[in-house]
Design goal:
This protein is globular. Strand 1 (15-20) and strand 2 (23-28) form a beta hairpin. The protein has helices at 41-44, 49-67, 74-90, 93-97, 104-124, 128-140, 144-162, 174-188, 192-199, 201-212, 215-218, 226-234; strands at 15-20, 23-28. Helix 7 packs antiparallel against helix 8 (174-188) and helix 7 crosses helix 12. The N and C termini lie far apart (42 Å). Strands 1-2 form a two-stranded antiparallel ribbon. The protein has twelve helices and two strands; from the N terminus they run ββαααααααααααα. It is 62% helix and 5% strand. With 235 residues, it is mainly α.
């Protein structure tokens, strides 16, 4: 497999997801795993910087949500924490949002994040952020990785609200880090379609109802409190 984009982790997963007019077609088969993965940075370097950044947030979400899954295990926890901390140390927010072109060594960091995020998701599944994103994507047509970027911070806020010890496993304030990324993304991207979902009560109710029927919602390690979630999404 030679990925043309990074972030989804599909190259390291037994899950295939294809968008169609009828919605997402999801198939799971061990034969989807390749014998080898070749990350060609000359291909990835042709992508727009924002596409790469959005992809990286999808991969980070895979890592975080594999830790909050009912299927999590010590290996996934170690891999996910190490992956995110390594990425943060090698790519500062300044470089993420204020560089005209990522270097080859920086693109390798995105590839590592994508690969490990795919392994984490493959072993434990996703969670609340992906459930909300799948539903928002269906309602608005906004691309998957953009929805993930939008819902990452409120998801972390929700996790912190229901489990004060969860985020303390990172050696930095991942909630503050996510907020900083969200603020910088808002500088460069128009999230109005997604914000509108949260501002109208009927649309928000529809979003949460759709999300609660998503398989990723059911993988979350605690029963999701819709009242707390609604308060966070509207604040």
């Amino acid at each position: 497999v030679i990925p043309s984009k990074v972030g989804s982790g599909a190259e390291a997963s037994i899950t295939s997801i294809i968008n169609s007019e009828k919605g997402k077609l999801i198939t799971v088969d061990e034969n989807f795993l390749p014998h080898a993965i070749i990350y060609d940075t000359s291909i990835i370097s042709q992508l727009d910087n924002m596409d790469i950044v959005f992809g990286s947030l999808d991969a980070m979400s895979h890592c975080i949500e594999s830790m909050s899954s009912i299927n999590t295990n010590p290996y996934v926890n170690f891999l996910s924490i190490s992956t995110i901390e390594n990425f943060r140390k090698n790519l500062s927010l300044e470089r993420l949002f204020n560089t005209s072109k990522f270097s080859s060594s920086e693109l390798i960091q995105f590839c590592l994040l994508s690969f490990n995020g795919g392994i984490a998701q493959n072993n434990a599944g996703a969670g609340l952020c992906h459930a909300l994103s799948h539903s928002a994507e269906q309602l608005t047509g906004v691309p998957h990785s953009v929805c993930i970027a939008f819902f990452t911070y409120p998801t972390l806020r929700y996790i912190n609200e229901v489990d004060k010890d969860f985020l303390s496993r990172f050696d930095f304030d991942i909630l503050e880090y996510s907020l900083s990324i969200s603020e910088l993304l808002c500088r460069d991207y128009d999230f109005s379609k997604l914000r509108n979902l949260l501002q109208e009560s009927s649309m928000l109710e529809n979003l949460i109802q759709l999300a609660s029927n998503d398989v990723c919602w059911k993988l979350f390690y605690k029963r999701i409190d819709k009242v707390i979630l609604t308060n966070i999404l509207t604040s």
